[in-house]
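Long-time lurker, finally posting.

We've been working with DUF2905 family protein (Geoanaerobacter pelophilus) and I want a structural starting point before designing mutants. I don't trust myself to interpret raw outputs, so I'm hoping someone here can both generate the structure tokens and explain anything notable. Sequence follows.
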Amino acid sequence: MPGLGKSLIVIGLLIALVGVLLTIAGKLPWIGRLPGDLYIKKENFTFYFPLATSIIVSLILSFILWLLRK
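Top reply, 14 upvotes:
Generated this for you. Predicted structure of DUF2905 family protein:
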């Protein structure tokens, strides 16, 4: 099962990368505040959906996974 070992290494690296991104995300002012992120605040209700941020993160992760498959 040599493929399993490589897959576990890639998954571990991705988890480490996500951990690093979550650590530095608070220091980047634009993460979660892009145009296209939905933010609705009313009297007793707040709704936040980071639509644009989710799309950007998805594109970056898709590109990284595409590079790893080559």
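Before you design anything, note these points.
The beta strands are 38-41, 46-49.
Residues 2-69 form one domain.
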